[in-house]
Design brief:
Elements (H helix, E strand, L loop, with lengths): L1 H8 L7 H22 L4 H12 L6 H26 L1
Length: about 90
């Protein structure tokens, strides 16, 4: 998951059209799992994740890439919140 975050949010991130589609699928799956694991401890982030997961990935490279960045950012937020809860 962290490699995927780097591929989307890293300093040199520039995913191609095929990578955007592949990464979007993985982020949607991972984010769904994080929301399930959160058990309400990350209510705000989980709420934003639920809203984003209800949206279908948009057509077109630009909008799809923006959606992917949003998925990556909320995934990172969920990881941070869950990490804080464990600490």
């Amino acid at each position: 998951m962290y490699d995927d975050l780097e591929a989307v949010l890293g300093e040199h991130a520039d995913p191609s059209g095929a990578e955007v589609e592949e990464l979007t699928g993985r982020f949607r799956e991972n984010l769904s799992q994080l929301v399930a694991v959160s058990r309400g401890t990350a209510a705000s982030a989980a709420g934003r994740a639920h809203v984003l997961l209800r949206e279908a990935p948009p057509p077109g490279f630009g909008p799809a890439r923006t959606y992917l960045r949003r998925l990556a950012l909320i995934t990172l937020a969920m990881l941070d919140v869950l990490d804080e809860d464990e600490g």
